[in-house]
Amino acid sequence: MTGSVAAMVIMCLVTAALAVPAFWLTMRYNMHMFQLNVYMNGEQRAWIRKNFHLQWILVFAMVLGIITMLVPIAGISWLTCVFIVLCWLTLAVIILVYRVMKQMNQKKKLVFTPRVKRMVTTIIVLCVLFLILSVFTGLKTVGPEVGSIESAFTQIPGMLTFLVGSQLWMQMLAKTINTPVEKGVNNHYINDAKAILRSNPDMTIIGVTGSYGKTSVKFFLQTLLQQKYSVLVTPESYNTPMGVVITIRKFMKPSHQIFICEMGARYVGEIREICDLVHPHHGIITSIGPQHLDTFGGIENVKKTKFELADALPEGGMLFLNGDNEYIADYLEQHGGYDNVTFYHSEGSGEGYVARDIKVSNLGTEFTVIAPDGETETYQMKLIGAHNVINVMGAIAVANRFGIALKDLRIPVRRLRPVQHRMEMKENGNVTIIDDAFNSNPIGSKAAVETLALFDGTRILITPGMVELGEEEAEYNRKFGTYAADCCDWILLVGAKHTEPIREGILSKGFPEKKCLVFDKVEDAIDYAYKIKGQGHKYILLENDLPDNY
Predict the structure, then answer these.
(1) Which is more confident, 94 or 237?
(2) Contact at 8 Å (CB) between 480 and 446?
(3) Around Cβ 96, how many Cβ atoms within 10 Å?
(4) Which of 89, 119, 126, 288 is least enclosed by beta carbons within 10 angstroms?
C-alpha cells in the first residue's frame, strides 16, 4: 500500500468514526419528529420548513459532502485534504448539537415500534447502497488514474458527510419505499381485528368522538357501565385506526359485552375509516370546536368529520349529542336528518338530559340531573370545574339509556376521577399542581383558568399556549390571555415567540407586567412558581405541554 493510499485510508477511518455517531443522532432525532408528526410526509415537510433554523447544518453537510466528492483531483492533494478536514469539523459540530437536542427532547421519547425499526433498516440499507455506489463511481470516474483504489477512497469522506446530512429527509423516503410493506402489515392486523369482532356478534360497540372531552367521557362511561356490564375501552388515547386494532387484538375477550371505542381524527375521513373497521352500534359526539385546524383546513371540515360517526350508525342506533355545543347545533340545523338523537345539557334547559343547580367549589362539584321521563337525581363528584359536568352528563345519559337507573349511578359518579393530565390535582405540601397538560383548546383553556379562580390562595398559570389552530391561532391565544388575566395572580409563559399573543391579551387587561414572565423551559417556570412568595396555599395550573416537535 502506497503512502498516499494509507493516508487516505486513515482519513476515511477518521471520517467514519465521526460519521457513525453523527448519523445515528441525526437519524434518531428526525425519526422522533417524524413519529410525533404521525408519519405524515406532508406534516414532516411543514415541520422542517418551520424549524429549519434548528437543522440548517444538515443542509450544509449535504452540500459539503457533494463538493468533497466532486473535487476534480485524483488521490490526495491539499484541496482534497481541506475539504475532508471541513467534513470532520462539520460532523463533530453535528454530534455536539444533536446530543444537546436529544437531551432537550424528553417529553415523549421515540418509541422503537416495529414500524420505526423497519424504517431504520430501510435507511441503513439505502445509505450502504449509496456508499457502495460512490466507491464504484470513484473507481471509474475520479481523476486521471482511472480505476485506482486511491480514487475510490476520495469519495468516501464526502459520501459519509452527505449521508449524515440526508437524515433531514431520509425518513420520508424510507416511509415512501416501505408503504407497500406497511399496507400489507396493517391489512393483516386489520383483518385479524375484524375476525375477532365477528367472533363477538352480541357485543355492543359505542363510538366516542369529539374535538375535546372524548377521552374523559370514554373513561367516565366505562366506570358507569361497569355497574351492569363487562366493558372494554380503548386504553389511554388509542384513538387511531391502528390504536383501535391493537386494542381489539390485545385486550378483547368473548366475555366483553360493550366495547367503547374512542375515535380521533386530524383529517377528513379518519373517523369514517375507524367506523368501517368497528361498525359502531351507537355513538357520542362530545364536542366540536377549533382543534387541529392546520390539518382540517377549517371548522366546517371539523364538523363534517365528527358527524362521520353519526352517518355510520345503523338504523335504530342511538346518537348522543352535547346540547350545549353551538357547532353541533349549527350542523344539525344545516343538515338534520338524524334519528334517535339524545341530547344532554349542562346549561339548565333543552330536551333530553339536563343538569341543574350546579354547585362548584375547589372540593368538587354537585348537580342535579333531570331525565327525559322526569326522573331526577342529585350527584356529587370530586371532579373540579363546571366544564366537567357536561362530560359526566354524556356518560350518565348513555348509561341510563342502557338500563341503569339514575339512582344507581350516584356511587359510580362519586367514584369518578380525572383522566391523567386532564385537570388532575396533585398535592405537594403547600402546593397543589392542577395538571391539565395533555392538550389545550380555546374552550378547555378558558374553563381551566376559570376553575383555577375558584381556589383561595396564590393562583399561578404556566402555559406555552395553544397550537394547531390555523390562521386564527394568534387570536385564540390572545383571547386566552384576557381570560387568564381575570383569573390568575401570576402567569408564567413558556416560549417567548409563541406566547407573545397571550402576553398581549394579558397586558391589555391591566395585569401587572412584573407578574407575567416568560421562560424558555417549562421546568424553569415550575421552579420559579415554587419560589413565589404569597399568602396561603399555592395552586399551579399547568395548561398544555407542547410535544417536542413544537
Answers:
(1) 94
(2) yes
(3) 12
(4) 89
Task: Give me the helix-helix angle, 52-70 and 155-165, nearest 10°.
Answer: 160
Q: Give me the phi and psi of 503, to 5 degrees please.
A: -60, -40
* Coil, strand or helix at 458: strand
Amino acid 1: pLDDT: 47
Give the whole-angstrom CA distance, residue 293 versus residue 442. 12
Distances (CA, A) of 125 to 130, 305, 397: 9, 39, 55
DSSP readout, 411-424? HHHHH--PPTTSSE
Q: Cell triple for residue 104?
A: 432537550
Can you tell me the distance from the alpha carbon of 182 to that of 188, in angstroms, rounded to the nearest whole number? 10
CA 248 to chain CA centroid, nearest Å: 22
Give the mean pLDDT of 121-146. Answer: 75
Q: Which three cell numbers stand for residue 114?
A: 416495529
Q: Which H or E element spans position 248?
A: helix 241-251
First to last CA, the chain: 52
Strands across the sheet with 516-519, in order?
Answer: 424-428, 431-436, 538-543, 458-463, 490-494, 516-519
Q: Which residues does residue 320 pair with via DSSP β-bridges, in sequence order?
A: 284, 342
Q: How many CA atoms lie within 13 A of 43 on its CB side?
A: 18
Distance, CA of 373 to CA of 352 (rounded, Å): 9
- The arithmetic mean of pLDDT across residues 106-124, rounded, is 88
**pTM for the model:** 0.80
Tell how many helices (H) and how many strands (E) occur in the chain. Answer: 21, 15
Residue pair 455/534 in contact by the 8 Å Cβ criterion? no
**Residue 8: partners with Cβ closer than 8 Å, 6 or more residues away:** 75, 76, 150, 153, 154
Task: Please give the grid coordinates belonging to residue 242.
Answer: 391502528
Edge-to-edge strand order for the sheet containing 341-345?
Answer: 231-233, 258-262, 204-209, 282-285, 319-322, 341-345, 353-361, 364-370, 376-381
Asked whether residue 424 carries a pLDDT value surpassing 70, the answer given is: yes
User: Which DSSP symbol is given to 315?
Assistant: T
Report how far apart, in Å, the C-alpha atoms of 7 and of each of 66, 75, 388 are.
Answer: 21, 10, 71
- Asked if 367 contacts 355 with a C-beta cutoff of 8 angstroms, the reply is yes
DSSP 122-137: HHHHHHHHHHHHHHHH
Q: The C-alpha cell of 327 is what?
A: 357547532
Buried b (16+ CB within 10 A) or exposed e, 475-489: ebbbbbbbbbbebbb
* Helix, strand, coil % in the chain, rounded to nearest 5: 55, 15, 30
Q: Which of 8-22, 222-236, 292-306, 431-445 has the lowest mean pLDDT?
A: 431-445
Contact call for residues 34 and 175 (beta carbons, < 8 A) = yes
